[in-house]
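Case study 2.
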Amino acid sequence: MQFIVLKKRSILLFVLIFVTIAASSIWLLFSRETVTTTAQGEQLRDIHLVTTEFKTKTDDGKEIEAYRWDPGTIYVGKDEKVLLRLYGVNGHEHPFIIEGTDIKGVVKKGEETTVELQLKEEGVYRLVCLTHPDMGSNGPMIANIVVD
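Prediction:
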């Protein structure tokens, strides 16, 4: 017959691991996405995007740069009410449109531009910076809004 001998240190380690797992599980269970409530009582999900810039030099010393939205792809549900929070980190300003909608605006460095969004049709909508729409203008600075 074999006996298992547990030392006090082993028992304490087991209890510590169990308490850590239990506390983490409870925290994950009760933590939810941040939801902003408007004056009309409608709930909006906040989605944050920032303007980013990448710079480097080629082997011959030429400086090249590219501007991007970060993250480059966001996912929203059909008819979901969303508040896009666009923050300008790099670049002086970025005038933008969301293709397939009437939404347009400008994101300025150091400022946040907010856009309420509720897309009724599934598909991919492009958030396009009009200053950097393609490779020739240090882009493309395009984010995809995937609606499903």
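The radius of gyration is 24 Å.
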